[in-house]
Amino acid sequence: MPNAINIALIPLLPFAGFLLLGLFGKKFFGKTAGLIGTALLLVSCLLAFQTAYEYFFVYGKVNGAYQQFVPLQFVWLQFSQSLSIDMGLMIDPISVVMLVVVTFVSLMVHIYSLGYMKGETRFPVYYAFLGLFSFSMLGLVLASNIFQIYIFWELVGVSSFLLIGFYYEKPSAVAASKKAFIVTRFADFGFLIGILILSYCSNTLSFTELIQRLTTPGSAELQTAAGYSFLGISALTWGAALVFIGGAGKSAMFPLHIWLPDAMEGPTPVSALIHAATMVVAGVYLVARLFPVFAITTPEVLEGIGWVGAVSAIIAAVIACTQTDIKRVLAYSTMSQIGYMMFALGVSKYGGEEGLGYTASIFHLFTHAMFKALLFLGAGSVIHYVHSNEMKDMGGLRKFLPVTHITFLIACLAIAGVPPLAGFFSKEEILLAAYQHNQAIYYIALITSGITAFYMFRLYFNIFWSKPHHPHGEHHGEGGFVMTLPLVLLALGALFAGFIPFGTLVSSDGKPLESHFHLSFSIAPVALGLAGIFTAMALYKSQNEKPARISATMGGLYTAAYHKFYIDELYLFITKKILFNLVGRPAAWFDRNVVDGLVNVTGNITLTVSEGIKKMQSGKVQQYGIYVLSAVIVLSVLFIYVW
Amino acid sequence: MNELLLLMKNELMVTAIIFLLLFIKVGKGMSNDRLLPLVQTLLLANLVLGCFFNQEGSLFGNMYHTTPLIALQKSILGLGVYLISLVCSDWLKKTEHLAEFFLLMLSALLGMYLLISGGNLLIFYLSLELATIPVAAMANFDLDKKRSSEGAMKLILSSAFSSGILLFGISLIYGITGTISFSELPQLADGSSLFIMAFIFLFSALAFKLSIVPFHLWTADVYEGAPVPVTAFLSVVSKGAVAFVLMTVLYKVFQPIESTWYLLVVILSVASMLIGNLFAVRQQNIKRFLAFSSIAQVGFILVGVSSGDIGSSTAVVYFVLVYLFSNLAAFGVATVIAAYSGKENINDYKGLYQTNPFLSWVMALALFSLAGIPPTAGFFGKLFLLTAGGSKGSYIYLLIAALNMIISLYYYLRVVRAMFMDKNETPVPAIQTGASAKLGLIICGIGIVLTGMMGWIYDYIQSLH
After folding, report:
1. A67-121 residue pLDDT tens
2. What is the ipTM of this complex?
3. Most A CBs within 10 Å: which of B161, B217, B458, as the mutation test of the A interface?
4. C-alpha to C-alpha distance for B159 and A603, rounded to whole angstroms
5. Closest to B218 (Cβ–Cβ): which among A610, A624, A635?
């Protein structure tokens, strides 16, 4: 059986770090703050690996299928007999995989930050925030009921807000953290309503019971829920769709993605943690967590999820080709890859071979965490070296940053889907699942994989090749051991994570899934990937005029993509022009003339009335007596003769 | 004999403390610095004693009756007195007649204990007097202030008047039914016009003590004139006790005329909320402000009282507990500030946060809780009151209550704004809060936060029914 204490310690240790460093960091720890945070996370990470090992190989499999365990459950708030909010830990394949991913990447980021953030005045605060974030994310992963996941979901939002806005002297950082917070808040509002609908329909908050009640055909709850509808759409569909909107906000799915590129204002290791491996995949995790409900009860919502994922994947990939800020390229790339995970879930069905998409999605989540965190940390090293985010300030860095160069190349190959690196295997599974269930999405995905290879190598060549680099001033190289070690470890992950037989561990119904390898099927994506790489090589390996000419001939398309298809402007237009003029102006008029008028009238009435009553409050005790007596008499008369 | 000791343990304990104080006073006397901790310890012991050996039982031929729920209500009142002795210790230490002050306060507390446990109208009347007359003497404790004597005089005259009406009502009831026992009255109540009149007379006495509109007129003058600890006692402990006994009287004794008292409670609670709020908006003096806001709060308690099932009495007991923490925290801060700077106006609180962050935070927490802002306990208290009141299905009534919650938000936040946002050239200087006052404020603060978070408190109260 799972060891509840060990599992509970996984989120609690980072939280202890947060408390310790948050309260006493500045006074007592100073520079050692980082070491303390890292040490706590190391223990947490080891515990996560131990949990994963024991779950997958010792006790998890019963009767040939992986089971859900709830090793710890207690009532947090009891409002009435039927309504209580519990706190618990849930152990099942996806939560265990996420535990490993989150603690491992978080540990890498902790180590890396020892070098990257050295000398920051608010160093202990930074580590305190990292601890808070890790705690919230791990709590989210382990949540055993839908309300608990919401609480941690919000905590994740708050702590990422703190981390993105860490450089709070920079106005752009503050604006970005605000934007991230507000956009995701909108989505979270949908999420909350969705939670309320689902839990109302199922009469429970616990995941296990909720899924069981809402997926058993003919269950009492399902029949009652079928009775409710709004605008001709059933309540369950609304609930599931709203929950997905919450997930889409956090996972930066189109069209709620606008916060993600701006959020790159935060420290780069933070981006590696939040925007590569953890918070942004929370939406995927949420859909996976409630997958049976989506797949069995509301397949129409799941289909929508598939399309949202596919559209996000290709739009983000096209935008990524035109960006010049390397972190923004990575941000759009993340969005595109999460699109992959989403549509993989969208094309999946529940159970057996049909559930391949589910397995593939979690598999890709796992491998993507490795290479995307690596890319971000590598980008961090580059930025650390050249003190700029712009591609034009880079080029020819391969001699100066050898470790970064090699590891970055590995990550690029992995994300481009070149065999036998990690990204190849997970992407193949996703494409296979799409091919089997939705051909249209399959072709979108295929094209996207070609574009992915292109923009990743555009990035790679622009940073490490292109023009020769002339070092000037003093440079501190790659930041020493603490900054290269995480790169190497993550590169090992990006190299070998693909060989894990994921289908035997994670599947939609818990029963192991044989993954078949189709050589013929792999030809098309790999060929497209290589074509993308070679195109990028031809264009960007050395400085030349070709890219400029191409972008000139592409004209409108290039400009549109460069401006991120004007989605930000569209939002501005909607909020500023339409909302402001059509809603804001009349509302302001209404406010000025009607509400203020009412308020003034109320105020006047209040004043007049209280002037009147004030006379009663004369201070003369004999008058008080008369009033009391008359009140008694009036009440008696009323109750005896009137009622 | 054993049963007597067990069932009346709290009454006996308080009586023992009263005698001890009397002996100390008659004997050599004791300095305030030593007497205050002694009394505080004894009150704490009383509180601890209230937690054990609670059982159901009757004494003296049903004249005295107790249950675990009644024991809990007594403990809540005891907690109120203990907290007053803590948060007001800065004021108490300065007073000249500390022993007498506690003598009076504990006598009133004893009266309240007997009031809650009373099993017939005679005990009801006697204990109500015992719970009132000492308070009038306490209100006079600022001996050099004219307003204090004036308030005391008004309190004693008004309460004598309401006692007269109460006695009239009791004698009518006795005349109609021929009994004064609570357990026999429900069977004999005939619901005639005379009986309803007698009920309204009796109710008006309780309404007077709870300062429900229109029986509230004495409140503002007395609250403003009396020293802060007395005001706190009047507005928290005394109201809590009467709210408890009101439920017993309505639910048990006047059960047969439920439809009448339901309507009466609804009308008076709406009036209390509205008038209390309208007045509170205009007040400048912090004590008057808290006095009027407490009238509105009592209106809220009546919302819970109105429905008359287990849920409503649970909600009321829970709310009184929450209200006790919140209001005592607010009064505590007001006492500390009044004791050191003599300032009692809301305008004087401007910029308090710059000089006294601790006091400001406690005050803000207390006001948030009084206003019912989540996640403070006040929010849950009001939520439960509203759900309890909602069980009878009159949604307009609930809407009025909810609207009043919003109005009250405005004036509670006004004080918060004054403390945190307004600038002041000459704010109240930094105050060195005494250790026991600080302890009391911290207990109140923890109570405000935790009572709401811990659902089992509500469950526990419900389980006692």
Report:
1. 788 877 777 766 666 667 778 888 888 888 888 889 998 888 888 888 888 777 7
2. 0.78
3. B217
4. 34
5. A624
Domain chopping of chain B, boundaries:
2-463
Backbone angles phi, psi at B193, to 5 degrees: -55, -40
How many CB atoms sit inside 10 A of residue B186's CB?
14
Q: Give the residue carrying structure tokens 């919140």.
A: B326
Task: Provide the whole-model pTM.
Answer: 0.58
Interface contact flag, B161 A625, Cβ < 8 Å: yes
- Chain B residues touching residue A620 (CB < 8 angstroms): none
Instruction: Give the per-residue pLDDT at A129.
Output: 86
CA pair distance A612, B239, nearest whole angstrom: 27
Which pLDDT belongs to residue A475? Answer: 59
Q: What does the pLDDT read at residue B326?
A: 92
Q: Which of A639, A641, A642, A643 to mutate to test the interface with B (most CBs of B within 10 A)?
A: A639
Nearest CA in chain A to B200: A636
Nearest chain B alpha carbon to A630: B214
How confident is the model over A14-37, as a mean pLDDT?
A: 79
Distance separating the N- and C-terminal Cα atoms of chain A? 67
| CA pair distance B107, B112, nearest whole angstrom | 9
Chain A residues with CB under 8 Å of B408 CB are none
% of chain B surpassing 90 pLDDT: 13
Q: Which residue from B minimizes the CA distance to A614?
A: B279
Give the DSSP H or E segment for B271.
helix B258-282
Looking at beta carbons, which residues of chain A come within 8 Å of B218?
Answer: 621, 624
**pLDDT band at residue A592 using 50, 70 and 90 as cut-offs:** low
pLDDT mean over A528-533: 80
Nearest to B78 by CA among B48, B58, B56, B104: B48
Whether B109 has a pLDDT exceeding 90, the answer reads yes
What pLDDT shows up at residue B80?
A: 92
CA A97 to CA A48: how far, in whole Å?
9
Is the Cβ of A633 closer than 8 Å to some Cβ of chain B?
no
Q: Is A572 on the interface with B (CB under 8 A)?
A: no
**Partner residue facing A631 (CB), from B158, B215, B218:** B215
Q: Give yes or no for B216 touching A (CB within 8 A).
A: no
- How far apart CA B294 and CA B234 sit, in angstroms, is 10
Classify A66 as helix, strand or coil.
strand
pLDDT band at B113 (very low <50, low <70, confident <90, very high): very high
Question: How far is it, in rounded angstroms, from Cα A272 to Cα A277?
Answer: 7
Can you read off the two tokens belonging to residue A467?
A: 């023009």
At A345, the pLDDT band (50, 70, 90 cuts) reads confident
A contacts of B153 (beta carbons < 8 Å) = 621
Give A476-527 pLDDT, tens digit per residue: 666 677 788 888 888 888 888 778 777 777 777 777 777 666 667 777 778 8
Residues of B in contact with A79 (CB under 8 A): 455, 458
Nearest-CA distance from A621 to chain B in Å? 6
Written as one letter, the residue type at A441 is: I
Asked whether residue B408 carries a pLDDT value surpassing 70, the answer given is yes
Is omega for the bond preceding A217 within 30 degrees of 0, making it cis?
A: no
Query: What is residue B188's predicted lDDT score, i.e. its pLDDT?
Result: 83
Whole-angstrom distance, CA of residue A615 vs CA of residue A6:
70
Q: Do B221 and A619 touch (CB under 8 A)?
A: yes
Nearest to A329 by CA among A462, A421, A495: A462
Measured CA to CA, the distance from residue A308 to residue A224 in angstroms comes to: 30
- B263 close to A (CB below 8 A): yes
Q: How many residues does chain B have?
A: 465
**How far is it, in rounded angstroms, from Cα A370 to Cα B112?**
69
B108 pLDDT exceeds 90? yes
Chain B contacts of A639, Cβ < 8 Å?
A: 196, 200, 260, 263-264
